[in-house]
Specification:
Elements: H1 2-16, H2 23-30, H3 34-40, H4 44-68, H5 74-91, H6 93-101, H7 108-134, H8 144-156, H9 170-183
Helix pairs in contact: 1-2, 1-4, 1-6, 4-5, 4-6, 4-7, 5-7, 5-9, 7-8
Length: 193
């Protein structure tokens, strides 16, 4: 039942937003009582926290599996992580939207728990970029923290505009992003020529 409550919460939070969805809306859609909801969750905010936690923990697990593969270059790892994030638009679109859009409704220890996991994903990416720089696969001398935020910015916000059923495949989007990240879009070395 807890899983069904989470799935229903995802559906309704995505459709209507966290604030506009009540516990009554969730239980009514499932055909259960509020008592059932409160058996599993202390509050609607706790349900939102669990939705966030499930989403980010799965991403971190998959990211760490990619990073730990010693047979893969840093460039390939970067490509695989970008693929992971873009594929998530198709496989976890509702949760991805909730994760980005509804985090502002978390407070206290719920918010800290999610921020810790989110920071873990970011730090893993930054360490990957730094290791790639040290090994000479990526250009050194650029601030790894800014590069990390830029990469995560273009990938994480793609769910707002990217349609997985549209004309451009997720593989093509990943190729474009990785080429842009690795090579930029200018034919000149200097941005201001």
């Amino acid at each position: 039942m807890k899983h069904k409550l989470i799935e229903t919460g995802i559906q309704l939070f995505d459709q209507n937003g966290f604030k506009s969805t009540s516990v009554q809306d969730i239980v009514q859609l499932l055909g259960v009582t509020k008592g059932t909801f409160y058996y599993y969750f202390n509050s609607k905010e706790e349900l939102l926290k669990d939705i966030h936690l499930i989403y980010i923990e799965e991403l971190v697990q998959q990211q760490e599996k990619i990073i730990k593969n010693r047979q893969t270059s840093f460039t390939k790892k970067l490509y695989e992580i970008v693929t992971l994030l873009i594929r998530n638009i198709r496989t976890e679109r509702q949760s991805a939207r909730i994760f980005t859009r509804e985090m502002r409704h978390l407070s206290g220890h719920y918010l800290e728990e999610i921020k810790d996991k989110r920071n873990q994903f970011r730090k893993n990416m930054q360490r990957l970029i730094e290791a790639g720089m040290q090994q000479g696969e990526f250009k050194s001398g650029l601030p790894s923290d800014i590069l990390t935020m830029g990469i995560l910015g273009i990938t994480n916000w793609s769910y707002y505009w990217y349609n997985p059923d549209g004309e451009v495949s997720e593989e093509k989007i990943v190729d474009i992003f990785v080429q842009m990240i690795l090579n930029g879009i200018s034919i000149n070395d200097s941005v201001y020529n």
